[in-house]
Design brief:
By secondary structure, this protein is of the alpha/beta class. The protein contains twelve helices and eight strands. It has helices spanning about 5-10, 20-30, 45-50, 50-60, 75-85, 100-115, 135-140, 145-160, 175-180, 210-215, 225, 230-249; strands at about 15, 40, 65-70, 90-95, 125, 165, 185-190, 220. Strands 1-2-3-4-5-6-7-8 form an eight-stranded parallel beta barrel, surrounded by seven helices.
Amino acid sequence: MKNISNKQAVDKLIFALDAASFDEALSWIELLSGHVGLFKVGFELFTSVGPKIVDCIKQRNQRVFLDLKFHDIPNTVARAAEAAVRLGVDMFNVHASGGSKMIEETVKAVQTLAEKNGRVKPIILAVTVLTSLNDADLLEIGFAKNAKDQVLYLACLAKAAGASGVVASPHDIAELRSQLGDDFIIVTPGIRSSQEEVKDDQKRTLSALDAVKLGADYIVVGRPIRTAADPLAVCRQIVQKIAAGMAAG
């Protein structure tokens, strides 16, 4: 068994900061700073309060995952990515289905701007198949491949185009790790307790322990923490599961 520090485990936990207002978000930031590795800022919050939420997180020396899933023509996404670099985010994502040219131009633009401004290049993730989608959903919207095959196809495309890693379901971790190697980053949403009944829109879920054992580099947790009677206690429990998964992996 490996000896895993608490900080190593904490760094792998991404909290989904899905708040409806700045004040609500701030309360979560103040409560969970130091207990999670990154705060994920998504559509709802960013649209509601704008870039100042990123500044708020960075002012507390915390890391930010900007989860806006850029998907547009290559030039537009590259310019949006440059704006993310200027905000100082540590991680952001694009849709792999935007294609290799979109990803390549984004990676190049980010690298150039980061070097010019003396910044660390943020992690660039490609979203493969949303964890709210299953085989039936993909068939409905016109994809010929099932979810497993589509994830691997898009992940390979993203890696070849220069992405740092992917966002993928816990059920896809083992295959991705096997096919794409240990240096390709896997960020995994859809984390639930192994005893917890799934009552939301996530369809392909797994526990934190199992996801990390399979090779996830980061796990994203939102509702299980936000809806808990004692969010900090749940955070600590998840971190313990992460540490156990790292030690066993």
